[in-house]
Specification:
Blueprint: E1 3-9, H1 11-14, H2 22-32, E2 36-43, H3 47-59, E3 64-68, H4 79-86, E4 89-90, H5 92-103, E5 116-119, E6 122-127, H6 131-152
Parallel strand pairs: 1-2, 1-3, 3-6
Antiparallel strand pairs: 4-5, 5-6
């Protein structure tokens, strides 16, 4: 069983303006998929807080971190930068696949700046902020996650 964590980047959800839906969906869906979900954290769109939380997941050995929100053009959308500050190896195919699959649904998908990458035994994937977009994105990457994590942890062959 792989461990997973969900990190929500949202000023408004953090301050209680509205309830988080995308992170809760991810937590529940990952649990249904057999992951041991160790954390769901909601943080404001602050680079240092997001970077430090991602690093804490790496340091604690979490295998998969899915972020939601903070990947667009708004000045406070800094999740890709926080992710890049932590990861050591990029995994562009994941974010490319999400964008390509999402473009079949909406042209707004090309505005995503989401990234994916690896540090130590942790795979971090940025997902969009809306619950609907998160569900669509997870459906795109879910079929390869177990195999990719198995390779990362030395439990599967390429």
């Amino acid at each position: 069983m792989f461990s997973a964590a969900v990190l929500v980047s949202s000023d408004r959800a953090f301050s209680g303006v509205y309830p988080d839906k995308s992170g809760a969906f991810l937590r529940d869906k990952l649990g249904e998929m057999g992951y041991d979900v160790v954390d769901l954290c909601i943080l404001p769109d602050e680079f240092e807080l997001l970077r430090d939380k991602l690093q804490s997941y790496v340091d604690s050995g979490v295998n998969l971190v899915l972020t939601t929100g903070g990947t667009g053009f708004a000045p406070r959308d800094v999740v890709p930068e926080a992710t890049k500050a932590v990861v050591e190896r990029d995994v562009p195919g994941i974010s490319e696949a999400i964008r390509a699959g999402s473009l079949a649904i909406t042209p707004k998908a090309m505005l995503s700046r989401a990234v994916a990458g690896i540090k130590d035994c942790t795979l971090i994937i940025n997902l969009p902020g809306s619950r609907k977009a998160v569900e669509e994105s997870l459906a795109i990457v879910a079929p390869v996650l177990e195999h990719g994590l198995g390779i990362l942890l030395g439990e599967a062959d390429n």
